[in-house]
């Protein structure tokens, strides 16, 4: 029986937020990557059951969620449409006009109309065996069901059994190719490819897994199989994605996916998605959705959040702009796609030491990099080549900053002098602090120009910030006793004050010569980033949290339970790039956060330790340097 369920709200938001944390209850979270903050779509949460999977109606207008309390139908904004009681394995047809499912532990196929949600047909199957998998043919004329060691195909009206196939082991999954001729059967130890027209198995692929999941690419030219596989040395079994040609004759690629339990093709067939995890937070795993290039197997720079529970299903909507995840924490989450609007662009090679600083020229055509190999290199982004270099008269170049007017570049080194070089000729024009080199100098680890290019702030390893009037080379103010090396600085747009990291971090007013504390007055803030409009500031506490601070109200907005080693706010104010430690030796991870909620939008793994990050002024690029001397650049798809 179908019961339409209107949504009624009779409890406060705080109770709702508490309820969604209870594992046996069902919640839906909607995250909009463009929104100013995370949006919880408020729906009735009690009694929805433990989730098995979720899928879009092909028309993009509704959602079907299978649970242990039946199948639930929602609008695309997650308002309840209907409840199919005691139904399992429910699935939309390719047109979205019907739903096919079965009753729990019964040998019946049931078909519903998605316009009225009325039951329109029941197909009684021979033998009292429960149904393990259901698949509708693309033309919606036939339906395949697997029951133990039997696969049966019926016409959708239930009038004809097209054929029955006996298998040597239990069949656990089914998949039709989009042109309808081929049916893939995943069973214990094999994936069989059945020619439906000829009613015979044409090929059988051996799998070391009890529950293989086959899935054809959108164009039917490739078949992906998720399952266990004996590794190359024959010493163990790994979970992997195998990619075969469409007939299953040639193995093209094997992608290791140790924890994946679901598989999805992108709508254009260019990549595959599956689950990965990292052990963090005292050894507890964090699950995320990762994507691989379907041609090369390369890990792509997109990933969705970190979940405490494993991912059960993934599905794109028809317009390819939203992706939906169901997970073992009994939540269905909806994200804008692409979750990360960054795509890999290039890697720049040349430095022999760790990258210590990166800075763009104002028109974003060149990037300048500093390194502890003492060389400053200029890179042309269009040609992707090094165009010139400057060798600092010091063992290490520790920081670098291109002036907003594009005319000069400041270099911080591990001696007392700060060379200012002409951006065109790469010749020194002056030295702030004098040209004398001292081996006992603390070293300049951070630099920041004011927006008018008049002032330069320099942060040192001896916990001091110096303010220079660049044209006259005059030191006009010093802020000291900050207790730790000042690793990050940021000027406000009006050039009357600047923010600095420290113990604690603060905002220095040049005219009043006073400090306003930010985030935590009694704690060390190792890195900061300021929003381009100067209204918000984000700072991170080592081995602790990251705070979002409202500068105008002088108050905390929110905190994220994660430490970032470096932070950078995007020029359009929508994103924050953060370098986050993974606890895996010499690696860290680049995360992209929503700027006004600190929610993680994407993860980018370079399998190295990144040491510097910066956005280009035109918002098109994100650059990061690692401790091996490589510079990685990503291009934004929606700058």
General description of the model:
The structure is a single chain. The protein is mostly beta strands. It has a domain at 344-636: YVTN repeat-like/Quinoprotein amine dehydrogenase (Methylamine Dehydrogenase, Chain H, 7 Propeller). The strands form 14 sheets. The chain has a 5-stranded antiparallel sheet with strand order 1-6-5-4-3, with no helix packed on it.
Chain-wise SSE layout:
Layout: E1 2-3, H1 13-19, E2 27-31, E3 51-56, E4 62-67, E5 70-75, E6 80-84, E7 87-92, E8 98-103, E9 108-113, E10 119-124, E11 133-136, E12 142-147, E13 150-155, E14 161-166, E15 171-176, E16 182-187, E17 190-195, E18 200-206, E19 213-216, E20 222-230, E21 237-245, E22 251-256, E23 263-265, E24 271-280, E25 284-293, E26 299-307, E27 311-316, E28 322-327, E29 331-336, E30 342-348, E31 355-360, E32 366-371, E33 375-380, E34 385-391, E35 397-402, E36 408-413, E37 418-422, E38 428-432, E39 444-449, E40 455-460, E41 465-469, E42 474-479, E43 489-491, E44 497-500, E45 506-509, E46 514-517, E47 527-530, E48 536-540, E49 546-550, E50 555-560, E51 564-569, E52 575-581, E53 588-594, E54 600-604, E55 610-615, E56 621-626, E57 631-636
Parallel strand pairs: 2-29
Antiparallel strand pairs: 1-6, 3-4, 4-5, 5-6, 7-8, 8-9, 9-10, 11-12, 12-13, 13-14, 15-16, 16-17, 17-18, 19-20, 20-21, 21-22, 23-24, 24-25, 25-26, 27-28, 28-29, 30-57, 31-32, 32-33, 33-34, 35-36, 36-37, 37-38, 39-40, 40-41, 41-42, 43-44, 44-45, 45-46, 47-48, 48-49, 49-50, 51-52, 52-53, 53-54, ...
